[in-house]
Amino acid sequence: MGISLSGEGRHRRRGRIAVPVIAVGLAAAVSGALMMSSASAATAPPRPTADLGHSGPSTAELEKRVAGAATADDTLAAKSTASTARTASGTKSARIIGGSTTSVTSAPYMAQLWYLDTKGTSTTSDDVSFFCGGSVIAPTKILTAAHCVKGFNWKAHGAVVTGTSTLPDVDGHTNGTVTGVWRQWNNPSYNSVKFDNDVAVLTLAYPVTATPIRMTTAGDTTSYKALTQAKVYGWGRTSSTSQDISQTLKTATLPIQSDATCAGKYGTRFIKGHMVCAGNPATGSDTGTTTPCNGDSGGPLVVAGRIVGVVSWGVTNCVEKGAYSVFSKVTSYVGAVYPRVEDANLNGDHLADLWLRRASTKIGYEKDSTGTGFGGAKSWGNWDGVNVVLQTDLNRDDYQDLVVRDSASGDVYWMHFVPKPDGSDGSWATKKIFSNWKSRTRIITPGDVTGDYRPDVLSVDSAGALWIYPGNGNGTFGTPSKVSTGWNQYNAIVGHGDFNGDGKADLLARTKTGVGYLIKGNGKTGSQAFAARVKVRAWGGFNTLVTPGDVTGDGKADLMARTPAGTMYLYPGTGKGTTEIFGAPKSVGTDYKQWDIIG
Description:
8-stranded mixed beta sheet
């Protein structure tokens, strides 16, 4: 799918093949920087002193990368992908032929992924450059294919363009927003030979304002029913006989095919449960064929407004008679991807950290995770006058926020870091979000409970009722919904992330007799928000339970538990919603008795 594109005085723009000659990308939209301004407060809560800013490449550098990737010779792209998978029937390949031109308003989440690595030499013979597609699934998160990410340094050499229907010009200028990449993740089980587990997430250096698209849910079967109509979007190749990609975003409608149909065409190369194929059988030529093609890799397959597939692979030149395009089956990867959307932390390395206050001095501190323990304490200044400090990321800008309750008034504040464009000397904004919560027995910030990708705040009132305050993604909240009563039977209710691997935020609760329960999230509101509790462990020997998120970096939410004597244990998450929910505990220190707030 695409229109030939050329630039004056430059090489004609070609389809960049990310990894194999197999897949190619779709594009997406987004723009701007999401920043919250300070709001006046009735009291003067503590002011954080930590600078969480991180710098990214300049716009000029990003445009240079885009221009270089867009005008590199096709032979260079071929060299950079020569090691990608080959099968008995040849090299896998994916892209869009056919379809129709559309605007970014029809798919505002579309993103262009441009990559250029000159290897630091003046010659172009060793350059690595390519183009992929992706989808904005949170203000700083792009869902794409692992073959577009693994083995490449996107922070050093990549650029992401959002918020536009058209590709940049030959100088890398765009009417959209160009953003650098801060972190990258690909499914650790990705197999570059089979293109199995072909999903990845790029974390942007700064948030964009595109409306994100949600992934389908874990366990979804309806979206994959044979002949269900799905939409694919991209800027990929428009013809099997030309390498030219489309300057304008295009879309096509493809029917989902059954696993039996896909396996009938591809045999064991099609991995049931991990892949889904779509489209009518190719005719053997451009005529009568509608299919993704080179340049569409990493882009979304959409059903009912949710991503159900990520463009992964297909046949060489895309139109081989009887061929279908193959996508990573998103329902199988929600549990792996969600933690990467929920991985904001204090020092920006995707490992969840601890925030603590020393009881004797009321000084706040940050202790950064090392993956197996925690580093030394970093001072955040005086934090007297508060009795709750919880970590979260209410605006999903990938900077860790704090939710803080004032001891005297019971007012609750949202503290969030506002970076400068160059990442230096950012500032903290404080906004009062709830008034007079002094009698609330529990406040929890588990992430997105309602399933709309916007983190929420939960509280238990004095009567024992649990309430969900659905976040709007900007420090404001919708109408609260009541879950149920009886929550004062627990002397601890905590949560931060997904404990059972289904991509939905959960809670952990402990009764006054020390029995621990997993309360699984359903991704809904009100009385339907949580499933029946599951008894998992006895936690009676601890006086504090803390859930900062994924401390170990394996994509599974972990638990911290402190004994009255001050020994802190790390219980690594297993992703199992049973008595085996956590692995064997490991002590991370014996001096934790000194802290009166740990969040």
